[in-house]
């Protein structure tokens, strides 16, 4: 019985590929919202939660821990009562923010087209490509 070869980097279609794991992380909706919320500087946990909205404390905590593990977010705790914790982007995340800003810009430019396509699909009318 032969062993399965290790996944190659760059084989994003393989679920075990390291590239795929990174794409999954940055493709997660909460991760994207956290990263974009931190782009203007450090933010405390509760403010971050208010900025994002509709995210539970548990999910925000898990997302921040995952982003910290991946080296995209850093956490700083300050000895206050209660303890103050701030999160900020790492230099590694800097290049990613530009890409996320481009995706956000594309979404804003095409939201009308996408909403029209959804309405047409949901009503059974074929959308005419622009």
UniProtKB/TrEMBL annotation:
The keyword Transcription regulation applies. The keyword rRNA processing does not apply. Pfam families: HxlR. InterPro entries: ArsR-like_HTH, HTH_HxlR, WH-like_DNA-bd_sf, WH_DNA-bd_sf. GO terms for biological process: regulation of DNA-templated transcription. One of its GO terms (molecular function) is DNA binding. Keywords: DNA-binding, Transcription, Transcription regulation. Residues 17-115 form the HTH hxlR-type domain. This is HTH hxlR-type domain-containing protein. It comes from Sphingobium xenophagum. The lineage of its organism: Bacteria, Pseudomonadati, Pseudomonadota, Alphaproteobacteria, Sphingomonadales.
């Amino acid at each position: 019985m032969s062993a399965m070869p290790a996944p190659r980097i760059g084989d994003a279609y393989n679920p075990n590929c390291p590239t795929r794991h990174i794409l999954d992380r940055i493709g997660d909706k909460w991760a994207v919202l956290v990263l974009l919320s931190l782009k203007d500087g450090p933010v405390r946990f509760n403010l971050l939660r208010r900025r994002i909205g509709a995210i539970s404390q548990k999910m925000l905590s898990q997302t921040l821990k995952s982003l910290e593990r991946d080296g995209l977010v850093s956490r700083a705790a300050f000895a206050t009562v209660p303890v103050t914790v701030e999160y900020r982007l790492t230099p590694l995340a800097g290049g990613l923010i530009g890409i996320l800003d481009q995706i956000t810009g594309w979404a804003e430019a095409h939201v009308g087209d996408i909403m029209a396509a959804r309405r047409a699909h949901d009503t059974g009318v074929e959308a005419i490509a622009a």
